[in-house]
Write a structure and sequence with these properties.
Radius of gyration: 31 Å
Structural class: alpha+beta
Number of strands: 12
Order of helices and strands: HHEHEEEEHEEHEHEHEHHHHEHEHH
Shape: elongated
Strand order of the largest sheet: 2-3-8-5-7-6
Largest sheet: 6 strands, mixed, barrel
Strand content: 15-25%
Number of domains: 2
Helix content: 40-55%
């Protein structure tokens, strides 16, 4: 006997709308439940992609080449000599749209006429940073750093405000050279930048790479070569790992190592790996609350039609036929609810929230995790399929209880309710 024969479908559809008010209430519960699953998963995936993008833009890159000792001791001793030559050789292994940025990054001190503060000094090639890191984006105020500007400096807006400085003011930068001697040089603030994380604004200052090399008497040196792959994101890590293996083969014997962003950002990588598990747990939790209402509604409908089930049994309908009819009703409820919820979720994500969700009021907390102040929800087909799949599978499982209850009614038992 076929499960979806036309007669059973017609009977189940009519039974579903015998009590439109009750059906509408349970449909509303299903729709709201699925919307919460899909929209919150889109919000979470948007946060996740924002975390990855912000972290990669925060001077990490998709791949970074360093002396392995630099991560333990970020000093000039653990530098990369002839960095430009090595970068050119690595560039030959990569596609044309890949960007490389060579940097010299060391701890130092920024001195003003009134105060001294610890900073991270980063020597950069301004042209190479465009599209690679946040410092390559337009500045908050002032003028960009020019390649020939030996005395120019960019400072975070947060640090600028904390020190009470202004664009155009002169400051002194101090750091240690390879011999351990302090080296200092005067710079003039050309502009200030904004970053997703205020801590970045308060810590990093940027000068020209050549100026920093001259200041430390370390020509051609760098501490890192950052590589940005335009087609790499949280879901295309295989590309990154392939390039890392290729680059490490080329670097063999040079005392340098290429590392992918997942190894550089282990906490974020772990969060990404666990995201689907978190979402599945959330879907099940939401369904548990929704499932009680579904089971209760169907059970009420079953008891209201007790005499009808008894008559069907007296006319020769088997228990399996009654279970089938009730399960088809449950399936109709779930499919209608899913269709409405998917449309509403798409509308909410693509229309209502397309300009993003501002989390600025949670500033300190979200910055700790590198989450963007404005989160743009991201709809994922896998999340939609998983949410709908959980609802259908668990919904049918829940609906099986009232269906089995209806199948146990006997003609003699139902006569008491005549």
């Amino acid at each position: 006997m076929r499960f979806f024969d036309l007669l059973s479908v017609q009977i189940s559809w009519r039974n579903l709308w015998r009590n439109p008010r009750r059906t509408t209430i349970i449909l509303t519960a299903i729709v709201v439940g699925i919307i919460s699953m899909i929209v919150l998963s889109a919000f979470g995936r948007g946060m996740m992609e924002g975390m990855v993008k912000n972290s990669i833009d925060n001077l990490v890159g998709h791949i970074k080449i360093q002396n392995p000792q630099y991560r333990i001791d970020p000093a000039i001793d653990n530098r990369i000599d002839q960095a430009e030559k090595i970068a050119a050789q690595i560039g030959e292994l990569l596609p044309d749209d890949v960007q490389l940025a060579t940097r010299l990054r060391l701890d130092g001190v920024l001195s003003t006429s009134r105060e001294h503060t610890g900073v991270m000094i980063v020597g950069i090639d301004p042209a190479a940073e465009k599209g690679v890191s946040f410092i390559g984006r337009p500045l908050y105020q002032g003028t960009p750093l020019q390649p020939e500007d030996a005395r120019g400096l960019l400072i975070g807006q947060g640090l600028l405000e904390r020190l009470g400085l202004e664009i155009g003011k002169k400051v002194v930068v101090l750091s240690q050279d390879a011999s351990g001697e302090g080296r200092s040089k005067a710079f003039r603030i050309r502009g200030s930048y904004r970053a997703e994380m205020r801590d970045t604004e308060k810590r990093y200052i940027f000068i020209n790479l050549k100026s920093f090399q001259d200041m430390l008497a370390a020509p051609g040196s760098a501490t890192e070569i950052s590589i940005s792959l335009r087609n790499a994101n949280a879901y295309q890590t295989g590309t990154v790992e392939d390039y890392v293996d290729r680059i490490n083969e080329r670097l063999d014997g040079l005392g340098l190592e290429a590392t992918g962003w997942r190894q550089l950002l282990p906490a974020i990588a772990a969060y990404i790996d666990m995201f689907d598990v978190y979402m599945l747990i959330w879907f099940v939790v939401v369904f548990v609350a929704m499932g009680f209402g579904l089971a209760n509604t169907v059970l009420m409908a079953v008891y209201e039609r007790m005499r009808e089930f008894g008559l069907q049994r007296a006319l020769g309908l088997r228990s399996s036929g009654i279970i089938k009819n009730v399960m088809i009703e449950v399936l109709f409820l779930l499919l209608i609810g899913m269709a409405l919820a998917d449309l509403c979720s798409f509308f909410l994500v693509k229309v209502v929230f397309r300009s993003g969700i501002d989390l600025g009021s949670f500033g300190a907390g979200i910055e700790m995790w590198g989450i963007s102040r404005i989160v743009y929800p991201v709809l994922s087909l896998s999340d939609i399929v998983m949410a709908n799949g959980v609802v259908v599978l668990l919904g049918l499982l829940v609906g099986l209880y009232p269906a089995l209850h209806a199948a146990r009614f006997t003609p003699i038992e139902t006569m008491r309710h005549l």
